[in-house]
């Protein structure tokens, strides 16, 4: 009877840890998407610095896979989001440095999330091992009672 209660407790604990792991995996995916977006913007600005044309032509996405042709009037500055709905103008070098800092913050958050996920997976493995041991003991108990 005690082993049955122990199995129920392990199953409950396992479900809780699985839910936590799923949330961490979703968070990791969102962090990775955010990081990749910052990386793409950084690379775009770095490439813009290399353009020699005074007013280069670009394609501006307007949605549904559609674009408008436009010209960049000021290729020395960019307006970058600083969060909470605010954006500021920075020269390209400062904008790239700012984006690199944000990318590093994302990398740190991703590393912490991956570590937490690894720990949870280890805990899940331990719980599964304990449950298997209890099942083996129960199976051996049933075979002896014949």
Structure characterization notes:
This protein is α+β, with helices and mostly antiparallel strands and 146 residues long. The protein has a single domain, classed as Helix Hairpins, CATH 1.10.287. 70% of the residues lie in helices and 18% in strands. α1 (2-50) packs antiparallel against α2 (92-144).
In summary, what is this structure?
This protein is α+β, with helices and mostly antiparallel strands and 146 residues long. Helix content is 70%, strand content 18%. The chain contains two helices and four strands; from the N terminus they run H-E-E-E-E-H.
* Helical proportion, percent range: 55-70%
Mean pLDDT: 92
Radius of gyration: 27 Å
Query: Tally the helices: what do you get?
Result: 2
**The CATH topology is what?**
Helix Hairpins
**Tally of DSSP β-strands:** 4
What strand order characterises the main sheet?
Answer: 1-2
Order of helices and strands: HEEEEH
Beta-strand proportion: 15-25%
| Whole-number tally of structural domains | 1
Biggest sheet statistics: 2 strands, antiparallel
The CATH C-level name is Mainly Alpha
Look at the helices and sheets and give the structural class: alpha+beta
The general outline is rod-shaped
So what's the oligomer here?
single chain
The CATH architecture term is Orthogonal Bundle
Distance between the termini: 18 Å
